[in-house]
UniProtKB/TrEMBL annotation:
A motif (Interaction with polymerase core subunit RpoC) lies at residues 45-48. It holds the Pfam family Sigma70_r2. Residues 45-58, 206-232 form the RNA polymerase sigma-70 domain. This is RNA polymerase sigma factor FliA. Sigma factors are initiation factors that promote the attachment of RNA polymerase to specific initiation sites and are then released. This sigma factor controls the expression of flagella-related genes. It comes from the Bacteria. It comes from Methylomagnum ishizawai. GO terms for biological process: DNA-templated transcription initiation.
Length: 259
């Protein structure tokens, strides 16, 4: 059912007021999600899906369950956006699985050796040939190591703020700490990986242009960028693990409130 048809079905003075008062949530959640999505995803699609979620929330909300409408709507909006993303995530699950395995291997090697994990070490730990390992890096870079399942697990900072008015003000400090830790992790990348990340994300060069700067093939740049992304993922895993459990508890609570 599209947004217009759903709106016609649920339209009432009470629904109108709820939608008007909470429409800002749709854009806030959409733009926050966009910072973690591939460039191929259009924010307009996320906003449209989020509006459907908001309308569904207005239709199904039961104040007797004890949750505020903002809490319930935030969860339904984000859920609708994730459902929309699942329709367009054509990356095989095997790519995401292999990327996770590489990140875990990098983390284990660096914890054991106290230095940057080398390509050959990671491939050996995973029982892969160098060609197979480099194929995984290219695949990981091509899908931006983006996974709907991980996005669902790790949660959304804007939603957390909206969904829990009683949340501690220290949460904003935690998020600031995460940003600082990420900046430190990027600064700690091996020189070539750090340069590729800088040229791609800060200077906005494409892979071919970066290859010309470094004097390597576009395929090699793709491998280096994939390695950098997986190394960052490995080094930030502690933060993600720390976030995951409280977010899961909140989402479980949201499902109970909306039941």
């Amino acid at each position: 059912m599209n947004g217009i048809a759903l709106y016609a079905q649920v339209q009432s003075p009470g629904t109108d007021a709820l939608v008007a008062q909470n429409a800002f949530l749709v854009k806030r959640i959409a733009y926050h999600l966009m910072s973690r999505l591939p460039p191929s995803v259009q924010v307009e699609d996320m906003i449209q899906a989020g509006m459907v979620g908001l309308l569904e929330a207005a239709r199904q909300y039961d104040a007797g369950q004890g949750a505020t409408f903002e809490t319930y709507a935030g969860i339904r909006i984000r859920g609708a956006m994730l459902d929309e993303l699942r329709r367009y995530d054509w990356t095989p699950r095997s790519v995401h699985r292999k990327a996770r395995e590489v990140a875990e291997a990098i983390r284990a090697i660096e914890a054991r050796t106290g230095r940057d994990a080398r390509d050959a070490e990671v491939a050996e730990q995973l029982g892969l040939s160098m060609d197979d390992y480099h194929d995984i890096l290219r695949d990981a870079q091509s899908c931006r190591v983006f996974s709907i399942e991980e996005l669902t697990e790790s949660g959304d900072g804007v939603l957390e703020e909206c969904a829990d008015p009683s949340a501690s003000p220290s949460e904003s400090l935690v998020r600031a700490g995460f940003a600082e830790a990420l900046a430190d992790a990027i600064a700690g990348l091996p020189e070539r990986e750090r340069l590729v990340v800088s040229l791609y994300y800060e200077q906005e060069l494409n892979l071919k242009e970066i290859g010309e700067v470094l004097g390597v093939s576009e395929s090699r740049v793709c491998q280096i960028q994939g390695q950098a992304m997986l190394r960052l993922r490995a080094r930030m895993q502690g933060w993600l693990d720390a976030e995951r459990m409280p977010v899961k508890r909140r989402e479980a609570r949201g499902r109970r409130l909306g039941a």
